[in-house]
From TrEMBL, chains A, B:
Residues 2-50 form the HTH cro/C1-type domain. It comes from Paenibacillus sepulcri. InterPro entries: Cro/C1-type_HTH, HTH_LacI, LacI/GalR-like_sensor, Lambda_DNA-bd_dom_sf, Peripla_BP_I. This is LacI family transcriptional regulator. The keyword Transcription applies. Keywords: DNA-binding, Repressor, Transcription, Transcription regulation.
Length: 346, 346
DNA sequence: CTGAAAGCGCTTACAG
DNA sequence: CTGAAAGCGCTTACAG
């Protein structure tokens, strides 16, 4: 069924030149006279010839493929944020003529899974990779970097010894938290609680520390009863509030959630308990999730631009792939407050 | 920086065997004595050796990669449905040890774009591809199939002459529409309108024809003023209703939307016009979008299982890749009514 | 059971 | 400006 594959020697024969010349026109070498180039191009187009990618890579070209690794235990398919990121990366790299091999890691502690990820790098299927959602200092990512692979990591601590093949991308979560606390303070809140994210990810502790610092700056007391555990997922926000309310202790007037998903869950739990947002309690999120605007109530949040981050990250990554240099690259993006209707003045 | 890459001759040398033998243990040939296998495996593991994928492919192995092509003019990143599909395919194929190269096609009429897609096939980056969201009989996909590539297509008409390398996957939209009309009829509706999808996609006309047939079956008259144009996107649902209401003509008591996104848009337009759903008008969607359940009101819809479809499709696709056969494969999945709160009895 | 050798389809110094 | 040749790292008949 499949048409006999045509290759460069066939093209060479048909064009009356050598394979070397065919290769030269394909790779846009300067020293090919226009006449020759034209002649060869005509045959190439006529026969719908495209050089075999594996042969090119084996002969020293790049795979022009980057790996996109999403660490996400179970929740990926429903999270629009992840979707945005996948699409962002695909479109960003395609502008450079690159492809993306997307991989989902359900359990980063599973040996088999880790082996598969490493395999992708070692097999040279990709020229570099981006990891999103990993625990801070995830060992196997560190290994990959130590091995010399070009890796972009989102939400990871900078290493003590900077490495030129590690590109770190973060948001200024510290500043984001300050904005959140300052905003609430401005509305008159003094009793502010927080639902934390996953403390194994860098943004977990970073946001919490930012919260503590911001509270101090505003001269507010942190009530440890109002510091709730979470994990960046909606369910964790729900559960945090659910079990908090069961205790029937004193309540904060405002809650800062580690991200918008957590805020959604928290609000759901509050509603179920008969508490209105923002009438009875104010809630502020983080990320500006696609659904936050349409949420009831529309969620006040700290906006973060993942698309912009990934655009910068992929650009640097591909730059490093094409031209490995010793300079250390890292990016930090600012966050900004988006006021909607989930917080009220007290 | 990068550790000297180790290759099979090096492994062979270290294990005291020939490259042939190394290859044999890697490829699990039967005729390797356990002792030898063990010896070689030890070296392989010790040196963290993974065979170079390009070399393997060039030597005749499969790329173990399938292409996932999403045709989606602009709206991809916000549509959770697309996300679900991407993730589904990735996870489905990874169960077979395959990878996916995801590609987004913004404009299938752009020559450059089409060339890029073809290139991916001709370069042998992938063993086969899946197209989602394409116009029915999209010419370049037909070309690819004619060329002999193994292709899975969602929502496409079966060809007159069946081809073994074309795998067609559809939902039984006809039955879905019948269920929708029958349900509304059961609630006492006789004045039923419809917002169509993109008529260039198979499901556009199929759903509409299903609607017409179902109306006839139920002995109902189709009012052409209530047949509105759309395109499967929310905005089109909004616009369809918006301009319909401006005309101030007679109104249907129920509307069937080509999919849930369209229904969301339609409901938004109705609300803006001061009409309540389902009090003033009933609306039923199609797909059972992830947001339909949380919508206000929760949307009654015809459920369709994309994950199941893609699971079957990828399974057949990979089967064909590994063992090309002449049998023609196609799948059709049933739809089912999900009753929620967007339709009322009249 | 195992090795030597050919071959997969390219690219790129090298020589002219 | 251009061709012959080596090399990329594998796999797989072939022969023993």
């Amino acid at each position: 069924m499949k048409k006999a594959d045509i290759n460069s020697v066939e093209i060479a024969r048909l064009a009356g030149v050598s394979r070397s010349t065919v290769s030269r026109v394909i790779n846009n070498y300067a020293n090919v006279p226009p006449k020759t180039r034209e002649k060869v191009m005509k045959v190439i187009q006529q026969y719908n010839y495209f050089p075999n990618a594996s042969a090119q890579v084996l002969a020293g070209k790049r795979a022009r493929t980057i790996g996109l690794f999403l660490i996400a235990p179970g929740h990926v398919s429903s999270d629009m944020l992840v979707n945005r990121m996948i699409v962002s990366v695909i479109e960003d790299v395609s502008a450079y003529g690159y492809y993306v091999l997307t991989h989902i890691i359900r359990d980063a502690s599973d040996q088999e899974t880790v082996r598969n990820v490493k395999e992708i790098f070692f097999q040279r299927r990709i020229d570099g990779g981006i990891f999103i959602g990993a625990a801070n200092r995830e060992p196997f990512i560190e290994e990959l970097i130590a091995e010399g692979f070009i890796v972009g990591v989102v939400d990871q601590q900078h290493p003590e010894i900077p490495q030129s093949n590690r590109i770190v991308a973060n948001f200024n979560n510290d500043s984001g938290m300050k904005q959140a606390v300052a905003y609430l303070t401005g509305l008159g809140h003094t009793r502010i609680g927080v639902i934390n994210g996953d403390m194994n990810r860098l943004s977990g502790p970073t946001k919490y520390e930012g919260f503590l610092k911001a509270m101090q700056l505003c001269g507010l007391q942190v009530n440890q009863d109002w510091v709730l555990d979470g994990s960046f997922h909606e369910e964790s926000g729900y559960e945090a509030i659910y079990s908090f309310l069961r205790k029937n202790g004193e309540r904060p007037t405002a809650i800062i959630a580690a991200n918008d998903s957590v805020a959604f869950g928290a609000i759901r739990a509050l509603k179920e308990h008969g508490l209105q947002v923002p009438e009875d309690i104010s809630v502020i999120g983080f990320d500006d999730h696609a659904l936050s605007e349409k949420h009831h109530p529309p969620l006040t949040t700290i906006r973060v631009d993942f698309s912009d981050m990934l655009k910068q990250l992929t650009s640097i990554l591909i730059g490093k792939i094409e031209q490995p240099t010793d300079d250390v690259k890292q990016i930090t993006l600012e966050c900004s407050l988006v006021v909607r209707d989930s917080c009220r003045r007290v």
